[in-house]
Amino acid sequence: MNEIDHETLHLEAAVFRRLRDHLLKERPDVQNIDLMILAGFCRNCLSDWYREAAETRGITMTKDEAREIVYGMPFAEWKAEHQKDATPEQLAAFEAARKAHG
User: What region holds the SMc04008-like domain (predicted)?
Assistant: First the structure.
């Protein structure tokens, strides 16, 4: 992978924090399944990517630790406060999106 200059690294980190904080503070109502349907990624994907990036730098991180960084709290707590059961319509849209992009 190409080295990223110091300024780019800081800008990209700021963008990540803004996205994370936006999903956490401004739009906790947006369900992960809706993100997956529309964008092909969700908060869990962000936490997986975060953990993978840590591992490439030699930092050991559990799935739960990465999720807490992205969700701003333990995942179980966030799930209890914000996650709703997927509707049949969401599940059908998710399956259609998965087939179209899979």
Answer: 30-95
